[in-house]
Write a structure and sequence with these properties.
single chain; 6 helices; about 35% helix; alpha+beta
């Protein structure tokens, strides 16, 4: 009898789970719930999800709580390779970057603050940086990732005159500074997941 009752509970739970609405995290960090149940609107706002930011952002978004805690700590604790950053500085003057990261991702939390610290010390022009935060599925409601093969985050894509020079994916082959220098200087470089 107990086993039969347990099976019924599992079936009911599964049925309920399937009938529940899917969730979508917006760029402001609020969660929206969509469903086909009888409601006056197709979209109902739910409690904000403070751990996930999705869409185009700027540095200020990462410096606000709850993100500011890890961003500021990791930025301050990262020790840059000053010699490599000096070599890097002339190359980044005419480079544009698309940076994809997840505020939920430990690799992004580690690499993105360090990335900003390196760019700060290389006197990078931030009007040439597009920061895009993604969901756990590595996407955005607007589709900013479409056609760019964002499989892991962070992914930093470097462009010159609109042409991709290369990309840094998730973790360094050597160091973040040296990997960036290799990409922007045209030296042979394959990111961590390339053959």
């Amino acid at each position: 009898m107990w086993i039969k009752m347990k099976k019924i509970v599992i079936i009911v739970f599964c049925a309920f789970s399937i009938s529940c609405a899917s969730t979508l995290v917006t760029k402001t960090g609020t969660t929206k719930k969509t469903n086909s149940q009888s409601q006056t609107s197709d979209t109902v706002s739910q409690k904000p999800n403070p751990e996930i930011l999705v869409g185009k952002q700027d540095r200020k978004a990462l410096q606000q709580e709850p993100f500011g805690t890890w961003f500021t700590k990791n930025y301050k604790e990262y020790t840059i390779d000053e010699t490599t950053v000096k070599e890097l500085a002339p190359y980044v003057k005419d480079i544009s970057i698309k940076a994809f990261m997840g505020t939920w991702c430990s690799d992004s939390k580690r690499e993105t603050p360090a990335f900003y610290k390196i760019l700060d010390n290389a006197w990078f022009n931030y009007t040439n940086l597009e920061l895009i935060t993604v969901t756990r599925e590595k996407d955005t409601p607007e589709g900013f990732e479409k056609g760019l093969h964002i499989d892991r985050v962070p992914t930093f894509i470097f462009y010159k005159n609109g042409k991709e020079l290369g990309r840094y994916v998730e973790f360094a082959k050597e160091t973040l500074e040296k990997d960036i220098l290799a990409i922007v200087s045209g030296a042979p470089y394959k990111h961590s997941y390339e053959d």
